[in-house]
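Recap from last week: sequence in, structure out.
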Amino acid sequence: MSHRRRATRSGRFQPRVAALLLAGLASLTSFTAAAEACAPDQLDLRGPFGTLRFSVELADDAAERGQGLMFRESLPRFSGMLFVYDRVRPVAMWMKNTLIPL
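Predicted structure tokens:
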């Protein structure tokens, strides 16, 4: 029985393994290209409407999240702020002293 398994592996699985390796390399290449195109200050939304690119600021600590967009007198079109938390949880936000329309 072990002889039969070896014959099956050498005959059937090598092309599959090669195909899986090629698929893995292809996905790794596309992932690398996507990672290189990523920028921490940009966000792209893609849909049937096309692609919209936004310039974003990250508020990723308590002080930045607390300040948010308070007292900003302007914010360029297609710009915004992303609030980043260390874990998924319910959060509450308010628009205190936000001078710009959201």
